[in-house]
User: Fold this.
Amino acid sequence: REGVARAIALVAALLLSAAGDLALSRDGRAAFLYGLSAFALAHLLYVLLFSGLSQQPPWEAFARAPLIAAALVGFGLSAEIWLVPHVGRLVWPVRIYVALIVAMALAALTLPLGLLALGAGLFIASDSLLALAVLAGAFIAFGAMFANIALAAAGEALPYGLARVVSGVVFSLG
Assistant:
């Protein structure tokens, strides 16, 4: 029963990510908010999924990988300097999104390090580069290209890494 719930959560997170990509490919503030919201919900599902698999809350990442966890939180807090001042009226949606993506990465760190953690890191790198590309027009071409490569790699690493963790859990229970 838990396996089915986890599979549904994973599929829902992937579908929300696809919806986020679709929304962000459109112009306008409403499309941006839809995309941001879809990705935020996907990250929330990943937090629940990863925490459920590890049976640990995200803050346990500080016990498993303290330097990486501290760097993630520091990077999330640094968004107050390099990102938040530039988003206008979207301050709170962006802050919530940053908190959720950091929580997702921390939750990934509660599982064995590998493709899952790499996928979470690539997701953060991709989102950060896209934000920088939008804020600093000079980096748009390079930043967007690298961000798309990182996002594609994250899109492969997260589900594959999760499948490996889930299959290990399933086989170790049997």
About this structure: DSSP finds seven helices and no strands in the chain.
